[in-house]
Design brief:
Number of strands: 6
Number of helices: 7
Largest sheet: 3 strands, antiparallel
Strand content: 5-15%
Helix content: 55-70%
Shape: elongated
Amino acid sequence: MSNTVLRRVVRREMHSPRTVMLVIVLVLVAAVAVYAGIEVVLHLLGAAPLLVSPGTAVAWVATLPTAEPRSTIIAGASAVAVVGVILLWFVVAPGRRPKHALGVSGHAVVVDNGVIASAVAARVRRELDLPKGAVVVGIGHRSADVMVRPEPGQVVDRAWARSIAETELDGYRASPRLKVRARVQQSAERGAAP
């Protein structure tokens, strides 16, 4: 496989498609088009409209700029504008899945953030000689948050915990690169939490 193909595969695996949103919008547009078509056919046949005749609907739309109360018109226009901005956001913004591409081999390797978090937590826990559950790692799109909860009496250096996590993540060569934040929660702080 060529590098171009691998890059495309990795990108498709790491970004969610907009298929669901597209289908919803297309179904709504199709429903409006079908309704409008039914109303036009009923008007041409001289039958009563389902909701409103096409002529009445066009006349109503034409009178909207001068309609009263203005606050209702402004509220409706604002609602349409918000829906438009939301749809535009879905078109422009990338839909990211909770995954990272790893540069550990010449093959395409995409790993779930939970797997990376578990591996980093295990490494930090082993290096600091902590019991299971004492290290919790959260992986975001560009950051890794390491929370260390040592046993009472154990002293853990935050910088050392951060260094261990960075070393582990550097070995993965994750794309995009992850910035590590480390925190140490002492037993007294845990007892004070509600």
